[in-house]
Write a structure and sequence with these properties.
The complex is a heterodimer of chains A (474) and B (385). Chain A is α+β, with helices and mostly antiparallel strands and 474 residues long. Chain A has 12 helices and 22 strands. Chain A has 2 domains: 325 residues, 3-Layer(aba) Sandwich (Peroxisomal Thiolase, Chain A, domain 1), CATH 3.40.47.10; 138 residues, no CATH class. Chain B is built from 15 helices and 11 strands. Classes of the chains: A alpha+beta (474), B alpha/beta (385).
Chain lengths: 474, 385
Amino acid sequence: MIGITSYGAYVPATRLPLALIGGTRGEGGPEKSIASYDEDAITMAVSAAIECLRGFDRAAVDAVFVGSTTLPYHEKLGAGVVAKALDLRRDVATADYAGSLRAGSSALRGALDAVTAGTARTALVVASDCRMAAPRSALERSLGDGAAAFLVGDDHCILTCDALHAVADEILDVWRAAGDPFVHAWEERFVLEHGHRSVLLEAVRGLFQKTGLGPGDFARAALYAPDLGSHQAAARAAGLSAERLQPGFFGRLGNTGAAFAPMLLVAALEHAKPGERLLFATYGDGAEASVWRATGEIEKLAPRRAVSWHLDRRRAIRDYAAYLRPRHLEAAEHDARYAAGISATVHFRERDQDLSFIGARCRRCRTEQFPPQRVCYGCHGRDDFEKIRLSDRRGRLLSWTLDHFFPTPEPPLAAGVVQIDGGARAYLQLTDVTSHELRCELPLEFVFRRIHEVGGKPNYFWKATPVRNTPETE
Amino acid sequence: MNPNAIRDKSAIVGVGCCKFGENWTQSPEDMIVEAAYEAYADAGIDDPQHQIEAVFCGAAYPSRGTAEVAESLKLFDRPVSLVQNYCATGTDAFRYGVFSIACGLYDTVLVVGFDKPKDRGVSGPSVMMSGVRDLPATPAGWFALCAARYFEKYGATREDLARIAVKNHHNGTLAPKSMLKREITVDDALKARMISWPFGLYDCAAQSDGAAAVVLTRPSLARKFRDDFVLVRAVAIALAPNPQTDPSFDFLGWKPTVYAARQAYSMAGIADPRREIDVAQVHDCFTLTELLTYEDLGFCEKGAAKEHIAAGTFALQGELPVNTDGGLKSFGHPTGATGVRMIYENVLQLQGRAGPRQVKDAGVALSHNIGGAPQTCGMTILARP
């Protein structure tokens, strides 16, 4: 049977309290998750994928499909950066699904098709979005940032896909034109009545008809909806009782676009029992509904950081400008985007180090080093190294500073030399850390982030962040 | 290495230095001419076209290379070279000048160190954006990396650093050509805005424009220029691994200084630096750099710097005065000029010409630069004959 073999999710630690948008302070009120200044759809996709791949052999991944409406490049593959950051095989198939809020479920469907057709045995699917609406617009309050990842295969599935039903629809309800940074929506009553509510329902009813199943056959439903009201209304219209609706974390997470329903599916999976049926339905220029069934394998999957773990890890910003600044919605004296930028040839030569965080181990004296050297730091032997992947190791902080001089949207910038388990060292920025946490020997792990936007494009590298409690240690 | 190969084989007979500062109205040419002609006058050279046989220049941010010096001084039809070695640039240019005299190739050469960072339109050093991995790249961030670990192990604090800043600000008020002439208190230093923890504004050197020059000759010819010439006892340069990636670095001191000191002390035959050296100019790009340098140079035991700072060991009236002209902190830091400026100050000290900041009976003087991440160190030891 073909289906999902693993899952992961990512929610940025940063939260924007909605009260800040209106100019008041509002800790404790409704909030939404927002990408930090060093995060985007690609870095969040990498983080969700790392969780999804926990305990799985990365070398077994045959395909990577990324679904998003907010990949940083119009021409350049997001899945390619994700594959490189994950240090996947060079002959992995890569594709982006874009342009629709259904990009996440379309990528999932693409993976199911690839495994069904036999062009891949194992496919990684990541849905990730960080959409922006105009500052202080009504829409801005509802959007949030996040990512979900699934591994699709035909062996040891935790969730099998039993049926799918799609509806295509043409409507100008929610859109973002080329060159426009902001998502727009037509008048709300029109959007809900003729868009989301009716078309999502059409797909769900079509699925019920096709399969002979009804709302009572599902333990949980992961449904896309732009807000709490339409989420509950859609469930009611489909005949789903309130306890069968996977809650949408409204007021905590925000509508994460193409990643939203996939993240709700992950949240449902966190509690799914063998034999239970799940309903999954996405919306965007049409809708798609599918039936999934949990297997006994779900109880064997090692604990991982999914939606609930990430929602509990939060850091609210105190100033609306801290949201605007890194999104270039506020004029700044020094805008790194206009500097000359990183040489494409340098980037090309350093792909292994910068994107895959690959170091070297001397075959003679075993000294590990980063970046890889030609002549060994330990024994001074020449060109006798093997590659080592450092991104999935841990480390500790050897020494650190808080740099107030370095231009960053959130000064001061924490940086330090990290002793990586195994012996290599790297000078890294620290992220998602507060200054009072910094101390020598602080345990660290690594996250893939935007290091800067010099040259008007995102430049990625790994950063260190304090090790947070893992599900295993909770 | 033959430690005797260059010892006392060259003599300094003239030194010059322009006023360091934000020299908005001066071009590099203006500063180079000012420093070189002062050094000529100091050496009694009235015909540089015939008396200067070669020129060794040091600049970290030259805009036009060797021509900048050759055209300024109209010194053509002879060798002019430009050396670059991070913050040890000026010291390294001097080192090649010493070699050229010691090997007997020339009678008299000129060493010029200069830099004009204030034409770049940025306050403080530029933030380097050349690579992805190298970031963040501010010198304050690099040099701060020893602080957390050193403080934890030896119990030093920001107050110990502040005392170094107070001392160097005081010494700077006594040097006519220094950039900053302003006394500060420990409290001023502690309350100043943060640059990169633990460095506040007053823990950081004053980046400035400037140029300095030295005339070198053979000791046998030195008396033709002046009786109180100064001998070059040692010059050293040493590189160490980038501390950010070095798998064996302990973050308690800087390796380049330890390495260079080993060479310099062997050349000069120095066994007990604190007693044998009378005055020292060390690289206080940041206050912690000066603190670690006390220990790395063997002026005191590892971890003991804070007691010596409190006791005034390195103050102007102390046992071993350090940075008598205010150092990089107060005199200014035009990268390529700094090493040559230190030699200028040491020569004045050895000749008893340092005015209100004069160290009594100074016979042996040391200078020290450390630069890069840091990875390089340059040192000189000068002595009265």
